[in-house]
Amino acid sequence: MSPKSESPSTLAKSVDATILAVRQETPNVKTLTFDLSLDPKAGQYLMAWIRGLDEIPMGFSGPREITVHEVGQATKALANFEPGRSLGLRGPLGNSFILRGDNILLIGGGVGIAPLTFLGEAAKAQDIDVTSLIGFRSSADVLFKQRLEKLGDLAITTDDGSMGIHGFASAGLKELNLGEYSQIYLCGPEPMMWDILSRSKEHSGKIQVSINRYFKCAVGVCGSCCLDHEGIRVCVEGPVIMADRLLNSEFGKYRRGPSGSRGSCRG
Amino acid sequence: MSPKSESPSTLAKSVDATILAVRQETPNVKTLTFDLSLDPKAGQYLMAWIRGLDEIPMGFSGPREITVHEVGQATKALANFEPGRSLGLRGPLGNSFILRGDNILLIGGGVGIAPLTFLGEAAKAQDIDVTSLIGFRSSADVLFKQRLEKLGDLAITTDDGSMGIHGFASAGLKELNLGEYSQIYLCGPEPMMWDILSRSKEHSGKIQVSINRYFKCAVGVCGSCCLDHEGIRVCVEGPVIMADRLLNSEFGKYRRGPSGSRGSCRG
Amino acid sequence: MSSLAGEVGGLILENPVMLAAGILGTTGASLRRAAMAGAGAVVTKSVGSIPRDGHPGPTVVPLDIGLINAMGLPNPSYREFQEEIDIGKTGGIPVVASIFGADPDEFASIASGLTADAFELNLSCPHAEKYGAELGRYPEAVQSVTKAVKARVRVPVWVKLTPNTADIVELGLAAQDGGADAVVAINTLKAMAIDIESGYPILGNRFGGLSGPAIKPVAVRCVYDLSSALDIPVIGAGGVSCFVDAIEMIMAGASGVQIGTALQRGYGVFGEIIEGLSAYLERRSMRLSDLRGLAMRRT
Amino acid sequence: MSSLAGEVGGLILENPVMLAAGILGTTGASLRRAAMAGAGAVVTKSVGSIPRDGHPGPTVVPLDIGLINAMGLPNPSYREFQEEIDIGKTGGIPVVASIFGADPDEFASIASGLTADAFELNLSCPHAEKYGAELGRYPEAVQSVTKAVKARVRVPVWVKLTPNTADIVELGLAAQDGGADAVVAINTLKAMAIDIESGYPILGNRFGGLSGPAIKPVAVRCVYDLSSALDIPVIGAGGVSCFVDAIEMIMAGASGVQIGTALQRGYGVFGEIIEGLSAYLERRSMRLSDLRGLAMRRT
Ligand SMILES: Cc1cc2nc3c(=O)[nH]c(=O)nc-3n(C[C@H](O)[C@H](O)[C@H](O)COP(=O)(O)OP(=O)(O)OC[C@H]3O[C@@H](n4cnc5c(N)ncnc54)[C@H](O)[C@@H]3O)c2cc1C
Ligand SMILES: Cc1cc2nc3c(=O)[nH]c(=O)nc-3n(C[C@H](O)[C@H](O)[C@H](O)COP(=O)(O)OP(=O)(O)OC[C@H]3O[C@@H](n4cnc5c(N)ncnc54)[C@H](O)[C@@H]3O)c2cc1C
Ligand SMILES: Cc1cc2nc3c(=O)[nH]c(=O)nc-3n(C[C@H](O)[C@H](O)[C@H](O)COP(=O)(O)O)c2cc1C
Ligand SMILES: Cc1cc2nc3c(=O)[nH]c(=O)nc-3n(C[C@H](O)[C@H](O)[C@H](O)COP(=O)(O)O)c2cc1C
Ligand code: FES
Ligand code: FES
Q1: What pLDDT score was predicted for residue A211?
Q2: Per-residue pLDDT averaged across D117-130, rounded?
Q3: What is the pTM of this model?
Q4: Where are the beta strands (DSSP E) in chain D?
């Protein structure tokens, strides 16, 4: 592994930002808009400092916004921020999706739709054709439907069949010819991404996957986010990783928690 | 005093230089040539680190040379460096002479001739007329006669009359019309410079004087070199100071030694 | 404009931004110049009982992250120094005399031999044998020196503490017990630099004290810990280079802020910091006292 | 090419440049990656007897002069960690297990429960209650912990020292008396940063440890002082970012050099430092042993 292949870590300091607007997207997902832009590229993330509580990684769903899924203490606190409240932002961090070709496919689920939507909008602005396949539990959870519809073809799956195709996102795969797309971008819950990846191995050279690991430092030194078996520092060399590097990794099999111990990748 | 009037201090780190050549100029003055140039302007100085012994200020007598008068432990050690030997150089430091007009006069004595010669050569390269008046104890002490002769008119005084005009440098003043020169540059022993200055007060607005004080840090923080009554930090705001600022200063009256106590300015 | 005036360690100051000890404090003229540049008070070079030339050069190592110095407490002795203090006083702001000695008696006799608006006891210089941190690392010594000086002078006595210790709070409490009116934190961190071309330690004294931006995080922590534990005011020093740093120190609990290494940029730093501080307070409609120790209240 | 191979603290290493404790040392894969990037040895994240999640975020404050961290010793416990060490070993270089505990017994039981090429005793982390520097600041504790571990293992034992003390040599001598095979200096300096927008201390744990370029001059001084006083080898850590820094550490007396914060630039730093070191030695026709402690011989 040559040092050249590592993305340089970004040394961003915390800046103070104020929430301009909060939009309820689904019952437990909100989008927060800031009064400033960190000038991110789609796929990058920031560390959101909820003062007095915690600092957590959040992808960008737009140049000056994040979309938060309430899953625990920090995300709940963040989602409850009122307009006018300020917080610390450290970013943009990590690498980004790279647009390739003129006909891309976005596949995602849950709050993973956030960075994909940002990417799709950037692609559209460059006249790239955008097709999206997004999966959710139920119609109430569907995120960014309108934003994605504006970009091109959109297929939706729901686990309970309440909207679109009945089944997991992989059910929607059948209707698509992956060979057609110049590049495929994937972001969502790990089991879903793993499901998609295992069904599309022959395309893994053109699938860019944004993954989550437990981030602490986000500057590439603490080792919390390292991905077996290569030891990829996801916080600085990711979060976007080519699918072929993931196939023989821990991805889809296990992930580490805050102590470094291995656990289920469903967490 | 506005902060804008202060010259910014130069943050130079020590570099390793090797002596290429040593030239004996007079019985107790030698010129050392380095293998590298710190790219100095005439009037600037460096801190020469004689490892294991001391670090002392030295003006440049050329882009890559200094001219050392042996007066004590450090200067003696430096003068005895053989070609091939290395030392640490921190510089270029301080402000510099500024060329003004097309007809300049250099007045100096002793090793103070060194920066003046460097200045005169720079002036000549710009087609400025250069006149020099230099004073020494005796003919054996005369420094840079040839270099200065090449630049234009040269008057020499010696205290003992063994060369040129008999008397102090001020004796040579009579033969010159100071009003003729666009700018006058002064460097030499303090009593000599004070003698000249007190005889040419009406020209003090166009006399640039390079002065010596006890330098320790050379970065403008320790306070060792401060000049009463303005509190000029000679190491960073000097060593070149306009004569009119010197007239009401300690210059010519006293100077401080290493402890900060006041002593004679003849030291 | 927000007023920056107030009491700091027993002195009434126009603003809380001061010149640190040993920085451009050897001559009365340079002290006065700091006053004219806007400082709220000035601290002199540390003076002792007999003249000292200081360590041989190099006396400083300039680094990107700060400065290492080993001046070695050069000073003309307190006897010769009264004149400089008197000239400094013409700047119109308090002049604090920094003094050092090898024991309580030496400190006390220097203090009684000088007239100044306050005394700062240098119990923290890390590079002078028998002085500074060599005494100041022991709480008992800090207490007894403080007590001895307090018994002899009627002006405020500040004690400057060393960060080269496992527990600076212990030292601060000792100063407080000795009757100090304030503590000043921090002096430099014991440090060294070696020239890789020759293998020589760069400083003439081999080791010295690290100051500047590098030590600010250590200084902020010391100020915070001291402010949390002491009843007397804490004056912050260490790496303050701009108004943001000054605010950080004040939020950590500092009543006043001293500027040292940043003077490399010139006397203009006083104006910059004071203006920045005023503008910050005004923008937020806050008073200086609202900032002080804010970090301790943020939990 | 000049050979950089040799013994360091009881281990035979290809080169003296190692990964420091707690840096990319949580997983076997990242340890192995350091090996593949050229490291001479790797030290693991410090592990204790029970799993710890560490402090809440922010866990780091990135600064121009370095990094402040308060990870809080997150680790999955030594029981779960053997697997990572074993994976790390596939990198082909020695894996040193860093361990921490609250008393000699806890240290000893962890050490006897792990298989590693050497142990590094973390008696120096400045931001974990009951652990690290809270023990390591006392020479008696350093000695007794060292002794307890030495009695239970057959591999070399290194003791990592804290610079947050008035006298690191005292601590080094205590480690030596306890039977340590080497000391490692230094861990981070206790530090803090406050956000001036909100007044909050930035770190979740309020204070943490300063590392990176800012502390190099302190580390070099500690290594020099320890090397001058101890008979056992000293391994240098603190702000080493390039080969010049590594040479400075070695000239100060270091037998080996650990790299921490500089890994922010990526694993490539190992290659850069090793190549720079070799080229330097070759250019001067020197051996590594000629450099070691050179500064002590330059007077
Ligand atoms: C690169 C990246 C981008 C992300 N983008 C988004 C996004 O756009 N929107 C969104 O809602 N969420 C995003 N997340 C996930 C988000 O960071 C976690 O949901 C959040 O940290 C949970 O914190 P909590 O206190 O609410 O929950 P907790 O109760 O602490 O944990 C809930 C779950 O989140 C995971 N988690 C907790 N802390 C972290 C952490 N510091 N790093 C990674 N995972 C953690 C835990 O493993 C656990 O499974 C992203 C994560 C990463 C790594
Ligand atoms: C800006 C500047 C430029 C100079 N340029 C030259 C030059 O081109 N050639 C030259 O020969 N000399 C020059 N000097 C003077 C030179 O620095 C001193 O002669 C030298 O430092 C004496 O050191 P020593 O150990 O040999 O003598 P010492 O015995 O230590 O002292 C002899 C005399 O030199 C003075 N001196 C000693 N140390 C210093 C110091 N650190 N700073 C200033 N004065 C000191 C003392 O006051 C004493 O009067 C310059 C000085 C300054 C400030
Ligand atoms: C060149 C220099 C000389 C100093 N001399 C003294 C001194 O005489 N007495 C003292 O108490 N502190 C002295 N100090 C320490 C400073 O007063 C200050 O505590 C320290 O430098 C940290 O502040 P800074 O980072 O703003 O410089 C000196 C510092 C420097 C850089
Ligand atoms: C993020 C981080 C985590 C660390 N974790 C540990 C640790 O677990 N155990 C330990 O002994 N030292 C730990 N350290 C200290 C380093 O090993 C090293 O001593 C210190 O950072 C100085 O070296 P550096 O300036 O090269 O980083 C940690 C340092 C950092 C920055
Ligand atoms: S989160 Fe610390 S290395 Fe990635
Ligand atoms: S020599 Fe230190 S201020 Fe000029």
Answers
A1: 97
A2: 94
A3: 0.96
A4: 6-8, 11-13, 17-19, 41-43, 60-63, 66-69, 95-99, 118-122, 157-160, 182-185, 189-192, 207-211, 234-237, 254-259
Rg (CA), chain B: 17
Given pLDDT bands bounded at 50, 70 and 90, which one contains residue B175?
confident
DSSP letter for D206, please.
B
CB count in 10 Å sphere of residue A161: 12
C-alpha–C-alpha distance, residues A258 and A225, integer Å: 9
Tokens of D51: 């799993």
Measure the CA–CA gap between A82 and A21, rounded to whole angstroms.
8
Residues of D with catalytic annotation?
125
CATH number among 3.40.50.200, 3.40.50.80, 3.20.20.140, 2.40.37.20, domain B103-263: 3.40.50.80
Q: Is the pLDDT of residue B125 over 60?
A: yes
Query: Does residue A52 surpass a pLDDT of 70?
Result: yes
d(CA D219, CA D196): 29
Considering the candidates C116, C125, C259, C291, report the single residue annotated as catalytic: C125
Lining residues, ligand 1, CB within 6 Å: A 45, 54, 56-59, 66-69, 71-75, 111, 114, 212-215, 239, 257, 267
Mean pLDDT of chain A: 93
Residue C87, both tokens: 């000239």
Q: Is A51–C298 a contact, with Cβ atoms under 8 angstroms apart?
A: yes
Which chains have 3 or more CB–CB distances shorter than 8 Å to chain A?
C, D
Rounded to 10 deg, the angle between the C78-89 and C28-36 helix axes is: 30
CA B5 centroid distance within chain: 22
Parse chain C into domains and list their residue ranges.
Answer: 6-297
Chain C residues inside the 8 Å CB shell of B14: 58, 61, 195, 202
Strand, coil or helix: B73 = helix
Residue the block writes with tokens 């792990």:
D114
CB neighbourhood size of B212 (10 A) = 21
What would be the CATH architecture of the domain defined by B11-93?
Answer: Beta Barrel (2.40)
Considering only the C-alpha atoms of chain A, give the largest distance between any 2 of them, rounded to a whole number of Å: 49
Domain positions in chain B are 11-93, 103-263
What does the pLDDT average to over C240-258?
98
Taking the alpha carbons at both ends of chain B, their separation in whole angstroms is: 30
Kindly state the greatest CA–CA separation across chain C: 56
Q: What are the start-end ranges of the E strands in C48-195? A: 60-63, 66-69, 95-99, 118-122, 157-160, 182-185, 189-192
Q: What confidence category does residue C25 fall into, taking pLDDT thresholds of 50, 70 and 90? A: very high
CATH tag for D6-297 (out of 3.20.20.150, 2.40.10.120, 3.20.20.70, 3.40.50.10960): 3.20.20.70
